[in-house]
Design goal:
The protein has about 90 residues and is mainly alpha-helical. The protein has a single domain, classed as Chorismate mutase (Chorismate Mutase Domain, subunit A, Up-down Bundle), CATH 1.20.59. Helices cover about 80% and strands about 0% of the residues. Helix 2 packs antiparallel against helix 3. The longest helix is centred in the first third of the chain and has 35 residues. The radius of gyration is 16 Å and the shape is flat. The mean pLDDT is about 95.
Amino acid sequence: MATLRAHIDALDKKLIGLLAERHALIDRAAQIKSNIGWPARIDTRVEQVVANARRHAATAGLDADLIEDIWRQLIEAAIAQEDRHLNGDRE
């Protein structure tokens, strides 16, 4: 069990690293959107990302509904992150 837990912990660390990479990409997206005058929320893109996540989940044998819930939370956090950049970090 200790070995399995260590493997899970190592995988969690990799997932956090991937989320940090995604966070940096969202910062870049916010810069681009600011330059071209796009809003943080683009509903068609939100649904495209969710559909991609559901498809990848199904292919991997995961619960697509659960993955959709997780991805929608990620997307909302990303939109809030972009909003902070687009609004000059004003609340």
